[in-house]
Amino acid sequence: xxxxxxxxxxxxxxxxxxxxxxxxxxxxxxxxxxxxxxxxxxxxxxxxxxxxxxxxxxxxxxxxxxxxxxxxxxxxxxxxxxxxxxxxxxxxxxxxxxxxxxxxxxxxxxxxxxxxxxxxxxxxxxxxxxxxxxxxxxxxxxxxxxxxxxxxxxxxxxxxxxxxxxxxxxxxxxxxxxxxxxxxxxxxxxxxxxxxxxxxxxxxxxxxxxxxxxxxxxxxxxxxxxxxxxxxxxxxxxxxxxxxxxxxxxxxxxxxxxxxxxxxxxxxxxxxxxxxxxxxxxxxxxxxxxxxxxxxxxxxxxxxxxxxxxxxxxxxxxxxxx
Length: 322
Fold this sequence. Notes:
Number of helices: 14
Order of helices and strands: HHHHHHHHHHHHHH
Transmembrane segments: 27-45, 57-77, 89-111, 117-139, 148-166, 172-192, 204-225, 237-256, 268-287, 293-311
Oligomer: single chain
Family: Belongs to the EamA transporter family.
Keywords: Membrane, Transmembrane, Transmembrane helix
Pfam families: EamA (PF00892)
Protein name: Putative permease, DMT superfamily
């Protein structure tokens, strides 16, 4: 899922001359879409890990550890300076690592167990609405008519998915809805802490320390020896753990960051919303999940609310995580 990287992208005054379309700008949209596809197949790996005997906490720990090790190694080889931080800023990475990544991943993987991939994914994407509310309270950001409209759409979508009106998802538990929305809140918290961190550090630095802190905080609770034992006995668990950390975390982050260098942040964030669509297709085609008409309408309303929030020519902030 896209990080709040757009904060680090500088906005320049538009030129009167039309710049030639470079090769990098031509492939930028493809990079963003590829990142969304990689994020969209998270459920494929996490469910296989759950079936292999790992808990939601252990799945989260596996993802964070693999990503932290790979990204740290990448930076050690490419640019060691990006691993330097001021210890006074450690609280920012405690926020992005524990309050956001750890909390939202545990909630998200639990939601995937309790609900369909499409519903878990779309509840995660209520995050922009939570960012809007938090930003208004913490940063005094104005709440516009468009933001209110998006909030109403998202709330209506959640009502339809929860089955509060009509027949809806009668087999969907209240816990599934709560942890799904919890994932959205955790996802949103990355934008709050990340927006401050990205004013001081490169996106690679923020992401590396986010996953390092998340990994260290999970070690006492995840029984890492148990994870290692299961992985050694079950090759499927080992492979899916590596794929979750590399294919659905590290690679899409690098793709999204590279694509964002050559296109507007607003367009990039909207294009990355291919993720819930891919998650829905994975659920239907691979796990044979069923969607009711009311579920589909609820998903559409939440998706529409995110488009309303993000659809602009110039975007000051980007509220998405990876």
